[in-house]
Design a protein that fits this description.
The chain is an alpha/beta fold. It contains 11 helices and 19 strands. The chain has a 9-stranded mixed beta sheet. A 6-stranded parallel beta sheet has the order 3-2-1-4-5-6, sandwiched between helices.
């Protein structure tokens, strides 16, 4: 079995998750990490042989096959461009960049080099999300009528909650949608094989200012907050986004995205109604799929590889009754990406087209998908600002 050398840049929440899930593949060794803060300490804590302060040094010295970019959004572009220039395959966290122009240059560079390029839209890789895709592809839902759902979190509920994601120069011009709505809409386009054609958005900022800690957040306690512990910062990105959209084939949709919804820690809900049946999937109960029918009883399909479609069972790691979730989506996504690296091709598996629906391309999200998400984010911001429908083309 061929073994691959991976490096990870940006060791916060998700960088550590990448390292952990890469190890589950068995054929990928995380040989180094790069972190602007405490690289040696982080390398030791995560059992990675070497830590670098500067990702350039890691790329120059470690003969990496693949770089995983897990830094705040504003640095994705320069890091990806450097890695591609040096002949290293790239897995970039979402959103791919902070502007369309950056994403376009990243895609052009990836095409020029022929290297494998991926954006970590991991939520596609829940087995029952794959199953929905296969059901739609096989016509089990009939013609699609409308799609709805939400992505709700509460980690920015209080005005004392603070993160780099609140700062446009690090995060980009959209927050709730750019950070999590982009996962939801990627999932919709993936399962339907249809692209969004126009959007109409409404944004709200509930905390017009927030208290930015002047000392490390880790040592912070909301209860002990004193005026000298924080500075008041104006907020210019949305806490909440409502997005109505149309997909190709005349399918209607809408989603609610919020980072200030008390009690919902990280919940994605997807509802799809068609002319034959409907489905409802909830990431907080991700091993079950509700199937709605008019003429007979409703059903519930549980995650069990022995009864799922071949595509869905192919990304299922455990037998029925053994719960899989968020970390497993990373493992399955990475497995497909490293298969592409092994095959020396971005697109080893041939997909298919059904009318307007396009199920071709790799199962993982590529830079092309990342760029399309950047376009969507920008059009959604424009729509919210101008209070009107905006076409994507
Ligand atoms: N796919 C997912 O489900 C998912 C979940 C969370 C975050 N993300 C994405 O991952 C990225 C990181 O998010 P996070 O939540 O891990 O943030 P985080 O703040 O927890 O971690 C980011 C880390 O990057 C480090 N860093 C910043 N600039 C750097 C540089 N130039 N070189 C090396 N290290 C640098 C910071 O010191 C920090 O440790 C973001 O793009 C975010 O949108 C994706």
């Amino acid at each position: 079995m061929e073994k691959y050398r991976a490096g990870v840049v940006g060791i916060g929440f998700i960088g550590a998750a990448h390292i952990e899930q890469l190890r589950r593949l068995g054929n990928v060794e995380v040989v180094a990490l790069a972190s602007t803060t405490n690289p040696d300490k982080k390398a030791e804590a995560l059992c990675v042989p070497k830590g670098y302060v500067d990702y350039h040094d890691m790329i120059d010295r470690e003969n990496l096959d693949c770089l995983h970019i897990c830094t705040p959004n504003s640095s994705h572009y320069e890091i990806a461009m450097y890695a591609l220039e040096k002949g290293v395959h790239v897995v970039c966290e979402k959103p791919m960049a902070t502007t369309i122009a950056e994403a376009e240059k990243m895609l052009a560079k990836a095409k020029e080099t022929g290297l494998v390029n991926a954006v970590n839209y991991n939520c596609r890789f829940y087995p029952l999300v794959f199953q929905i895709r296969e059901m739609i592809r096989a016509g089990k839902l009939g013609s699609l009528y409308h799609i709805g759902g939400s992505y709700l979190q509460d980690w920015l509920f209080l005005d004392t909650d603070y993160s780099w994601r609140l700062e446009k120069d690090l995060s980009g011009n959209s927050r709730a949608f750019g950070d999590i709505g982009t996962h939801w809409i990627d999932m919709v386009q993936f399962v339907t094989g249809l692209k969004v054609t126009e959007v109409m958005a409404d944004f709200a900022i509930f905390h017009k200012t927030r208290k930015k800690p002047v000392k490390p957040v880790g040592t912070y306690s909301g209860m002990a907050l004193r005026p000298e512990d924080y500075e008041e910062k104006p907020v210019s990105t949305e806490d909440y986004a409502l997005v109505a959209f149309h997909l190709e084939n005349g399918v209607y949709g809408s989603c609610t995205v919020s980072q200030v919804f008390a009690g919902r820690k990280n919940q994605m809900v997807l509802d799809i109604g068609g002319s034959k049946s409907a489905v409802h999937w909830d990431s907080e109960n991700s091993n079950a799929l509700w199937i709605g029918r008019r003429e007979c009883e409703n059903g519930e399909l549980v995650k069990d590889p022995s009864i799922l479609s071949p595509a869905a069972s192919g990304i299922t790691g455990f037998p029925g009754g053994h719960v899989e979730g968020f970390p497993d989506t990373f493992k399955q996504n990475f497995r497909k990406i490293y298969e592409a690296i092994g095959a020396g091709s971005q697109n080893p598996a041939a997909g298919s087209r059904t009318g307007t629906a396009n199920f071709a391309g790799p199962d993982f999200a590529a830079f092309e998908d990342g760029l399309q998400e950047m376009i969507l984010i920008e059009k959604i911001i424009q729509s919210a600002g101008e209070r009107r429908w905006i076409s994507i083309k």
